[in-house]
Amino acid sequence: MKLCLGTVQFGMDYGVQGGLRPLEEAVSKMLSLALDKGIDHFDTAPVYGNAEEILGDYRKNNPDNAGKMQIVSKLSSEAFTGKEKSLWADIAVKHAEAGLRRLRISELEAFLFHNAEYIFDENAVQALCTVCQRHMAKKIGVSIYSPQEAMKALDYEEIKVIQIPYNAFDQRLDKCGFFEKAERKGVEVYARSSLLQGLMMMEPERLPNRMQFAKKYLEIFKAVCREYQISPLKAAVGYVARHPGIDYVVFGVDNEMQLSEYLSIQGEGIPEDMVNVLQKEFENAEERLVNPALWEE
In Å, how far are 45, 142, 180, 213 from 187, measured between CA atoms? Predict the structure, then answer.
């Protein structure tokens, strides 16, 4: 397992706690520190505010580091909506071109569907393949939200990267055979949401009213962390990092201190018996907990 630095916090305010995005100078320092410590994969998207432009400016101002950066970006969620299917390939190429310009790079590590619904239309998949054929991305893939989307993505030989939500609360993909099939097909798996948009770092009593349903889960998680004398961050990330079916853990940070915390636990797992306890405690977690789209405003 390797770390992949997500950039949503760099371009916009993000997370259940309403974290504020850092200044560009601070982002530059974080990117340099990450690269210096061996983190060379970065996840971004055009909907992450100006995150792609920030990465592009960093590459321009730090040419020695630019060549080390492997960047994963995404096709805008509504790119094909309402457009004739005959135009989809050209649309995908134009979106990729625009992203490459913003990022000041010639080829992406991977170009993903941000809208996982497109995975159910073979025409969409073939249109995205055009980006690889034009040597604008090494691989194509999809960022999924549900087990149904994940399993459908594995039906395509063309899909080489799947980004999934995965954390100690969310065991849906363990139950449907996703990881075993992905390994057989040689698909790279990127896991995001190890902290569930920061929820797992919150104190139960500080949850907003709309999130009170999560209180009982947080209390159990914090109690297990205390029992094993392991910080919630190390427990949450370690739970994901120890999974043999995950190639990259996508994580986000607001400041250099948070990045240093991740670097300090890089490569560290958590005790197997702690993994077993967490699996048992949360094996039947409700859908509303693990799907932020269902969190009411």
Answer: 21, 11, 10, 35
Largest CA distance in the chain: 58
Q: What is the 3-state secondary structure (H, E, C) of 105-126?
A: CCCECEEEECCHHHHHCHHHHH
Per-residue pLDDT of 35-58, as tens digits, reads 999 999 999 999 999 999 999 999
Q: Which amino acid is at 285?
A: A
Q: How many residues does the chain have?
A: 297
Question: DSSP assignment, residue 21?
Answer: P
CB distance 294 to 288 below 8 Å: yes
Enumerate the β-bridge partners of residue 138. none
For residue range 243-282, what is the model confidence (pLDDT) as tens digits? 999 999 999 999 999 999 999 988 778 999 999 999 999 9
E-only strand ranges, the chain = 2-6, 41-43, 70-75, 110-113, 140-143, 159-165, 188-192, 248-251
- Residue 110 φ/ψ, nearest 5 degrees: -160, 150
Q: How many other C-beta atoms are found inside a 10 Å radius of the C-beta of residue 106? A: 8
* Count of CB atoms situated within 10 Å of the CB of 183: 13
